[in-house]
Amino acid sequence: MDHFDIRGGVMHAEGVNLDSLADAVGTPFYCYSSATIERHFQVFADAVAGLGDGDPLVAFAVKANPNLSVLATLARLGAGADVVSGGEMARALAAGVPANRIVFSGVGKQPHEMAAGIEAGILQFNVESEAEIGMLAAVAAAHDARVDIAIRVNPAVNPGTHAKISTGGQDSKFGIPIERAHAAFVMAAGHASLNPVGLAAHIGSQLTDLSPIESCITRLGELAQGLRGAGHGVSRIDVGGGLGVPYRADQPAPPLPSVYAEMVARATRGWDCRLIFEPGRMIVGNAGVMVAGVILVKQGTTKTFVVTDAGMNDLLRPSLYGAWHDIRALRPRGDTMVATVVGPVCESGDTFAEDRTIEAVGAGDRIAFMTAGAYGATMASTYNSRPLVPEVMVKGDAWSVVSERNQPAAMLALDARAPWL
Ligand SMILES: Cc1ncc(COP(=O)(O)O)c(C=O)c1O
Ligand SMILES: N[C@@H](CCCC[NH3+])C(=O)O
């Protein structure tokens, strides 16, 4: 695992002893390795460098991990940002991502979010419906602006991933069905306040097979050719993100960025346009862990439950998708146990692993949920009135709390008594 390994009997994140860090910040908490984030971004950016017109944009999908320090780490390396809300856009800007490297995607952008994007001067909006073309045209006209847009296409390609994270299938809510995309582009060109410059697609997440992405890119190319043949300029093609990461050692690893880039080079050969990439998970997934404490070990009728102080509200992926995260002891003792690892939340779905062989742990020990840097803290909630857990970033021997644990009293203060109570 990148930059998370056992040294002197204890798991470290880069040079930081995670058990000591847990003493300092309390459990549960997320911990990110800057070195891993930097390395993954650089590997991806190097792999796609020179593709298309030679000036590709790697726009990190902020939804994967919107922490300000994560975004600032990436901004320093020249990353752009793919955002899906005004909130994500504000974070990207605050982290130092230049506006002209921000792409705004999403099926339900609201007029105030469109206005904020126009005022900030973002690179482009990826428009996902004919209805949105009209809405954006009106907001842009009210700003006396002419905004660059790409038509996000639904290419009707089955990405072969979990149904809940597939976005490119025919009945997905995302994008404009490919058979109407040419007409949508022409419709947008008819608005003086819109400047359609490109096409976009994103077919799904945690993709382990490149062939659906290749089919999608080929379809975008055919569409671009048709548009060019009809006299329209297509100067940008956004191929989305989606490249998977290894969650389990016993399953084949997803393709490396270099192999992905070879496929993109092949599929886009001869295209004279700027390519945009929106990787999320592959940049930050393996750059984060969630550290939790073992509250107690409880014997059921047939199962041994390891009850941790982290719950499904802190790391939702196992409950929502049945996702696998490796679970490791911070201080492995060399023996193992078969355990069902659960959180304290009052839901049976608050289960991280079922009858899994893990390194033996007991009350007071600490464990790490691996590969939790993407779609981890960002999907957390305060269900059961549990505070959001802190996020810590590590760089070499240094660490810093980059998101505070919110406190029960502060959460309560957001509520108010109705005047009649
Ligand atoms: C439009 C868009 N771009 C990029 C991504 C990032 O995907 P991933 O984290 O799988 O790279 C997503 C999420 O799946 C998305 O919806
Ligand atoms: N939240 C998902 C990924 C969603 C991608 C969003 N388009 C996950 O944890 O795997």
Descriptive overview:
There is one protein chain. The protein has helices at 18-25, 34-48, 68-76, 86-94, 111-120, 130-142, 178-189, 211-229, 257-267, 281-284, 317-321, 408-413; strands spanning 4-7, 10-13, 16-17, 29-33, 57-61, 80-83, 102-104, 124-127, 147-154, 176-177, 194-200, 236-238, 274-277, 288-299, 304-308, 327-329, 336-342, 351-359, 366-369, 391-395, 398-403. The termini are far apart. The strands form three sheets. Strands 4, 14, 15, 16, 17, 18, 19, 20 and 21 form a nine-stranded mixed sheet that branches. It is globular and about 70 Å long. Helix 5 crosses helix 6 and helix 7 crosses helix 8. With 421 residues, it is an alpha/beta fold. It binds pyridoxal-5'-phosphate and lysine (LYS). Pyridoxal-5'-phosphate is lined by residues 61, 64, 82, 105, 167, 202, 205, 240-243, 278-282.
